[in-house]
Write a structure and sequence with these properties.
single chain; about 300 residues; alpha/beta; Nucleotidyltransferase, domain 5; 2 domains; 7-stranded mixed β-sheet; 5-stranded mixed β-sheet; 15 strands
Length: about 300
């Protein structure tokens, strides 16, 4: 790492005492790849038990080549990531090149055409992937760098990962969570430098979008815009909040100043957590957990 000047940092590691490297072939490995961070989750699928969570912050990257370089270094230095005999591997990508297509309108040979409505695509350097959103009866189509996809194929040549997108995972996770509620709150996921807003009613997805955040006032601006477009009242409508925001942080108190009914979302009921995960705030890592729902 020293020769490149690129350095990543492990900022959280939580491991259940039941985790056993001898049983990796029975576990699912979930990876969440962004341009500024990287997370991994290990799940024992029979009991849907979370055994290991790690969160890395990546350096300021300016190209796909640098991202590949830092991921290669991270995987080389990690005791588990290059293991190829996991029972299942799922990889989610965080980027803004995606679109949700209703299942009834989806055609497998039209991925690039769908993406052109929502993003500038580079067919020479990007590959296009489709991920099913069963709960929303939709398909998330997204673009990733060809070199990154080829690199993953080389890392796991005999165990092809399931590829999905952060937005697909968040939609699936939110719709699963919404099943337990009788009201229709606005769901918000605060990522690092991104804001995701979701609305669903019953088993129907009403709204999803993500917004780039440059300053804190952007959070309030986009939330208010979406609430207005959905005819929601900031004084009476409920907000469910997940993500990288502390319960005692200035950001949370600022939210509460403008929106009265803010409550933090819980850990997903479809996963079980040992006592060591009590140190992880319940509303953190919702997108990472939600990858488990993608087939």
């Amino acid at each position: 790492m020293q020769t490149t000047g690129l350095q990543y940092k492990l900022i959280r590691k939580t491991k259940d005492e039941l985790f056993d490297e001898e049983f990796i072939h029975q576990y699912h490995l979930l990876l969440n790849i962004g341009t500024r961070d990287f997370q991994l989750l290990v799940i024992e699928p029979v009991a849907s038990k979370v055994l290991l969570l790690e969160d890395f912050v990546l350096p300021s990257l300016t190209s796909n080549e640098e991202l590949l370089l830092i991921l290669d270094q991270l995987f080389d230095s990690h005791a588990l990531l290059r293991a190829g005999f996991w029972k299942k591997i799922k990889v989610a990508f965080k980027n803004q090149k995606f679109v949700q297509v209703p299942q009834a309108l989806y055609a497998e040979d039209s991925l690039a055409d769908y993406l052109k409505f929502n993003a500038n695509i580079d067919s020479a350097n990007e590959t296009f992937v489709a991920s099913s959103n069963k709960r929303a009866q939709a398909v998330t189509v997204f673009a990733i760098n060809k070199d990154l996809r080829n690199w993953l194929a080389k890392v796991y040549p005999n165990n092809a990962p399931v590829l999905t997108h952060q937005s697909a995972a968040l939609i699936e996770g939110t719709m699963e969570y919404a099943k337990s509620r009788t009201d229709n709150p606005l769901y918000i996921y605060v990522d690092r430098f991104k804001l995701h807003i979701i609305s669903c009613k019953g088993e129907q997805l009403i709204y999803y979008n993500q917004f780039a955040i440059k300053q804190f006032s952007d959070y309030i601006k986009y939330i208010m815009l979406v609430m207005k477009s959905l005819s929601m009242d900031q004084q009476t409508s409920q907000i469910v909040l997940w993500g990288y925001i502390g319960k005692n942080s200035p950001h949370y108190h600022e939210f509460y100043k403008y929106i009265n009914n803010v409550a933090f979302g819980s850990q997903p009921a479809y996963l079980s957590f040992g006592y060591v995960f009590d140190e992880v705030q319940d509303h953190h890592f919702f997108d990472l957990y939600s990858i488990h729902l993608i087939d």
